[in-house]
Amino acid sequence: MSLHDDTVLVLKSYEDQAELRQAYLDHLAAHQDGMWKACGAGHITASGLVIDPERGRVLLTLHRKLHMWLQMGGHCEPEDTTLSGSALREATEESGITGLTLLPDGPVRLDRHHTPCAWHLDVQYAALAPVDAVEAISDESLDLRWFAYDEVATVADDSVVRLLDATRARL
To answer: What is the pLDDT of residues 70-103, one digit of tens each?
Structure first.
């Protein structure tokens, strides 16, 4: 099964945000290359909010290009075989934390936003950090920092706050 086909199945089983979910499915139906950065009409991205529920905190990255505190995530790669695998890969690469596990039951939220490269149709997962998690800044980050749940709204935009709220509701 291709990453494109896996993403269609993931989106079809996602039960929230019906209008936005349909827009993602319509995009993939219209663009066979809709998974890839090269698709100028926009592309699917995968992200993972790294969360430590035991300590009531999340790990955010200060994005090198956007200069914003965000969850880990980005473009799908040719070696990705599943959308969840893409999200986990991005979360692991950008956090430096090994042993992350995705919350079960698929994506937590969808978020469509414009970036310098194109529209990102982001499929957002949540990744649980192991108890002994040690983070490490990647080349894509200016900084990496743990924030208490109630601090997130003071540093990040509404999309990250909505993702955190949805993730906490699922925990």
So the answer is: 999 999 999 999 999 999 999 999 999 999 999 9
36-64 tens-digit pLDDT: 999 999 999 999 999 999 999 999 999 98
Q: Which of 18, 74, 65 is nearest to 43 (CA)?
A: 74
The pLDDT assigned to 66 comes to 87
Q: Quote the CA–CA distance of 90 and 111 in Å, as a whole number.
A: 16
How far apart are alpha carbons 8 and 124 in whole angstroms?
Answer: 15
Q: How far is CA 133 from the centre of its chain?
A: 19
Candidates 29, 27, 43, 17; CA nearest to 106 is 17
Contact 97, 134 (CB under 8 A): yes
Q: Return the bridge partners of 62, or none.
A: 69, 143
Reference 50, options 28, 69, 75; nearest CA is: 69
Phi-psi region of 111 (alpha: psi -120 to 50; beta: other; left: phi over 0): beta
Count Cβ atoms below 10 Å from residue 26 Cβ, excluding itself. 11
pTM of the model: 0.96
Helix axis angle, 3-13 relative to 83-95, nearest 10°?
100
Angle between helices 18-30 and 3-13 (to 10 degrees): 160
